[in-house]
Amino acid sequence: MVCALKQLNLTDCFDVIYGSSAGALVGAYFITGQVPYEGGQVYYDWLPAAGKDFINTARVLRSVGLGPLGGDVWDWLRDKLGKPVLNLDYLLRDVVQKYQPLDWERFRDKERHQPLKIVASGLVSRQAVVLDSHHGNFASLPELAECMRASMLLPGIAGPVVRLNSTGSNVLRVTGPAFDNGRMPRFGGEPTVESGEPMADALLYEPIPYRSAVRENATHILVLRTRPDGVKVTGAFKLIEKLIMARFFKAKNRMRDIYTYMKRLGHKVLYAEDILWLNNRTMDITGAAGPPHALAISPLPDRTEIARYEMSREAIFNALRDGFARAYDVLVADPLERGRGAQVAKQVLPDAILDTAPAPVTHSLFANGDRAATSAPAAAAAADPLQPTAPPCPPNAAQESAADPSLPTVSRFTTSEVRRWFRNQMDSRVWSFSEPQPPDADSDEGDTRRAPGRGKKMRIDVLLLRLRSSLMKSQARKRRRRQLLQLWRNKRAGAVLV
Fold it and tell me: CB atoms < 10 A from the CB of 116, how many?
């Protein structure tokens, strides 16, 4: 929806931006003007590309304490060797600060006049906490990311609670165990220090951050909702949710009162009250009730609600476009433009985005053998004759698009393309050690991929693979695959398995 605000030139119409949970990150990209593309790519490119490195539901058993080791021993090992179900480090450290970085200089300049206020839940004060630069909660991009972590930290599945190191005057100071990187340790008995109170996701005490705006004397509030009207907002906890909350709040953090609050669905009742208040204020077009005046925009009821842990690139992209269309139809000033939101959304966010491979990657994202990426552009120098040549692979589509402007620009390949190449190499019984020869110009060899969104084939130059004699003697497919992956990392740039 913030993309529609940018399209309608309404960016500077707001004095303050409030964000909770994922809305905090969206608000930051909105302030810097990095929407709809840079900010949008975080959600429809980078997170689906991470796959299980970002969300891995197989780790949910750890959240309830089931595993070969139990209690604090397993938690300590998990923090050192593993990851939680929701890996916020990938989003807030790798993506936001490295691969799709927030423009910090521009953010700092604009935030002086249009501040970002991040809402989190204080687990000692039992109320919403507003974090901003004015109170000293963040003065750098890493500190801003840590405040976002506090607002996004879903209890039990996103890691330990956050305790800010900053000296913000609006954060309750409490005495607790010493901690590293703002996160509490698992074991008791460590030296105690005074620091900010532990925090978690805003959903506990302020799922929609309008209450903080009202408390700070906002007179006109625009609320961009993520869930449509008519969906069920209350209901009993599932068994797995009860187990996760019990272990997180009772066993690990000794916060029995908060567990009781969650078990009684206090946070869901609060969310339902927010929806009722916002809908009533939105329907009060006369303004007779006086300030604060509120306008809440929610997705259309006939749209499929996107799941919380959705990792489909197409589903996330379509949800982004649906939100754009909805906000555009509500806020556009020209009556003749109302109802054209879906068409404008397709113009701003065309289908060609999905037809191409995901956003370029210039850094190595994954260290395991199942995913490979390169961290530097490919060198133009000739290959070392003593080293194996680069594996044959699809050409950089960005180079092809330069020759044919009608083709969309991409600079990495899809999973299926890379896997197809590996499968062809692994199925081959003959490994050539001769010098590479260019393919016949009239030959169709190598036409294995169609241009994204177009019906014509893209020619792929095929190189003969040279391997060392040790590879020739090896009969183990795993060893061949490991060496091919290593060659891929060393010799190719701009490619990532998704």
Answer: 24
Q: Tokens 């489909």 appear where?
A: 312
Per-residue pLDDT tens digits for 258-296? 999 998 889 999 999 999 999 999 988 776 667 889 999
CA 111 to chain centre: 22
Residues 6+ away with beta carbon under 8 Å from 109: none
Calpha distance 339→356 (Å, rounded):
28
pLDDT at 30: 96
Q: Extract the tokens encoding 447.
A: 């036409």
Please provide residue 194's backbone torsions phi and psi, each rounded to the nearest 5 degrees.
Answer: -100, 130
Total residues found in the chain within this entry: 498
Per DSSP, 365 falls in state: -
Quote the tokens at residue 403: 């020759």
Determine the number of helices (DSSP H) and then strands (DSSP E) in the chain.
20, 10
d(CA 75, CA 287): 53
Query: What is this structure's pTM?
Result: 0.69
Place of tokens 């890996």: 87
Q: Residue 116: beta bridge partners?
A: 17
Task: Report pLDDT digits (tens) over 167-196.
Answer: 677 888 887 655 544 445 544 445 566 778
Bridge partner residues of 96 (DSSP)? none
301, two tokens: 């009821």
In the chain, what is the straight-line distance between the N-terminal and C-terminal CA atoms, in Å? 27
CA 290 to CA 298: how far, in whole Å?
23
Q: How far apart are CA 209 and CA 225, in angstroms?
A: 10
The amino acid that residue 144 corresponds to is L
Cβ-based burial of 341 (10 A; exposed 0-12, middle 13-18, buried ≥19): buried
The answer to whether residue 301 scores a pLDDT higher than 70 is yes
How far apart, in Å, are the Cα atoms of 262 and each of 92, 199, 236, 361? 26, 15, 10, 40
> Do the Cβ atoms of 151 and 119 come closer than 8 Å?
yes
Structural element, H or E, at residue 131? strand 127-131
Among candidates 350, 351, 346, 377, which has minimal Cα distance to 363? Answer: 377
| Rounded distance between C-alpha atoms, residue 96 and residue 105, angstroms | 14
Token pair belonging to 62: 């750890």
Amino acid symbol at 123: L
Q: d(Cα 42, Cα 361) in Å, to the nearest integer?
A: 12
Q: Could you give phi then psi for residue 220, rounded to 5 degrees?
A: -135, 125
Q: Return d(Cα 424, Cα 94) in angstroms, integer.
A: 33
Residues 6+ apart with CB under 8 A from 243: 63, 64, 65
Are 102 and 28 within 8 A, CB to CB?
Answer: yes
- Give the residue among 386, 388, 392, 384 at the shortest CA–CA distance from 428: 392
* Residue found under tokens 């010098």: 435
306 with 315: CB under 8 angstroms? yes
